[in-house]
Design brief:
This protein is of the alpha/beta class. Helix content is 29%, strand content 26%. Strand 22, helix 12 and strand 23 form a beta-alpha-beta unit.
Length: 451
């Protein structure tokens, strides 16, 4: 069952209802456009879509021929012709819910993520995956049934485990924000006396810029949780000092149901993402698969209760991810004598822009759809606020001209705006190897040399 909703009560209602009847929740970003949605929905073969009225009418209902597997479409909001109204469905339904007793190992959600090659992959997560990580998260942030948790991260992201399932597991309340706004976030934390907030580094950076101690009462706020990208070390002390909170940074992945490692409350190390979580095993290996000692740089491998069951309909990709029965994250890191891990880089080209995953191959394919484009390459460059932003290097066809804004507007029509590169460089030639493959490492070097 596809979920095309923003952060909302209806989203939470839908997600847990889907789980309760034994179906599989297939959420994706409310910012997605038709091309992005059709791939996910058709690959998962979702038979029902529950979506926000405006976006669903525009990106699904008007092009229903793109969705051959959908049998029913349910909309939240204003009525949409040809769709079932969410509220009417509920009000006219029986009060007796026919639930299904699922085994812990059965699928509960299918979240699409992607590497740098091929199409997005559906990460298969079970009931036990999410329950075990919710229990871990409760320990991680010291949450109980008297607390109030708030986040503005998208519910379609694996962060949902931390921001909704975790507080529900602990009996805490949840404050919902559809979209992040720094002033509104601080105002809500103050008004409702929120005890826990979770976000990506970009959110905290914007909140620090807007914070006025005389304007907000943050005395109840105890824990600030950050994940999704590395927090610049210089901001950690500012967050704890300005907001009067304990700061907890963690590292994880969709494939591990969120957390792998995290800094313990009051015992964190600046720049580190902490030791491994309870029952989670982590090791570093070199390119030959040999386990590495403290201080050595290697790929991060993981075993544990949150590790996914595999990629939906992709047995070869699943086997490649589980060489030697350990999940290979593709991330590079090191650890110290105390067992604290430090994320150094990613082997994959994926970049994280303001907490959102952006996959260069996906952006490149959109750019190539423009009739003026001959060649394109996209990579991530550092950004002081968003962590990373996509930059596009484009070679136009002979005789063609294009402005940066023209390409930005074109990309925004085809995909979520956060994926669209705003930093664009037009080149007469892109560097290649003898086989014709574009050498992105040379583009990165040229970009760094120009700074």
């Amino acid at each position: 069952m596809a979920i095309y909703l923003p952060n909302s009560l209806e989203y939470i209602f839908t997600y847990f209802a889907v789980a309760r009847i034994g179906a599989i929740a297939n959420p994706f970003n409310i910012l997605f456009k038709t091309g992005e949605i059709s791939y996910i929905v058709n690959d998962s073969k979702a038979c029902i879509l529950i979506g926000f009225s405006g976006e669903t009418e525009q990106n699904v209902m008007r092009v229903k021929e793109h969705f051959p597997y959908l049998e029913k479409i349910i909309t939240v909001g204003l009525p949409v012709e040809g769709a079932i109204d969410f509220y009417s469905l509920i009000s006219g339904a029986s009060e007796n819910l026919e639930t299904v007793d699922c085994s812990p190992d059965e699928l509960v959600t299918l979240i699409y993520t992607s590497g740098t090659t091929g199409q997005p992959k559906g990460v298969m997560l079970s009931h036990s995956n999410l329950q075990s990580l919710a229990a871990l998260s409760s320990i991680m942030v010291h949450i109980n049934d008297q607390d109030l948790f708030m986040t503005a991260t998208p519910f379609c992201h694996i962060f949902f485990v931390e921001s909704v399932i975790n507080p529900f597991y602990a009996g805490a309340g949840v404050v919902i924000m559809q979209r992040f706004n720094p002033e509104k976030t601080l105002e809500l934390i103050s008004r409702y006396q929120v005890t826990h907030f979770a976000g990506v580094p970009t959110m905290y950076i914007f909140m620090l810029q807007q914070f006025e101690s005389a304007k907000y009462n943050l005395k109840a706020w105890r824990v600030a949780r950050s994940a999704g990208a590395s927090m610049p070390v210089e901001y950690v002390n500012q967050i704890e000092k300005q907001f009067g909170v304990f700061f907890v940074e963690s590292y994880g992945a969709t494939e591990t149901s969120s957390t792998i490692t995290y800094n313990r409350l009051g015992h964190g190390k600046a720049g580190a993402v902490g030791p491994a979580g309870r029952d989670i095993h982590v090791k570093l290996v070199d390119e030959s698969g040999n386990e590495l000692p403290p201080g050595e740089l290697g790929e991060i491998l993981v075993k544990g209760p949150g590790v996914f069951k595999g990629y939906w309909g992709m047995p070869e990709a699943t086997r490649a991810a589980f060489e030697g029965e350990w999940y290979h994250t593709g991330d590079l890191g090191r650890y110290d004598e105390d067992g604290c891990f430090y994320i150094v880089d990613r082997k994959k080209d994926m970049l994280i822009c303001g907490g959102y995953n952006v996959y260069p191959r996906e952006v490149e394919e959109v750019i190539y759809q423009h009739p003026k484009v001959l060649e394109a390459a996209v990579l991530g460059i550092k950004d002081s606020v968003r962590g990373e932003v996509p930059k596009a290097f484009i070679r136009l066809k002979d005789g063609e001209k294009m402005t940066v804004q023209e390409m930005v507007d074109f990309c925004k029509q085809k995909m979520a705006s956060y994926k669209a590169p705003r930093n664009i460089e037009f080149l007469s030639e892109l560097p290649k190897n003898p086989t014709g493959k574009i050498l992105k490492r040379l583009l990165i070097t040229d970009t760094q040399n120009k700074k």
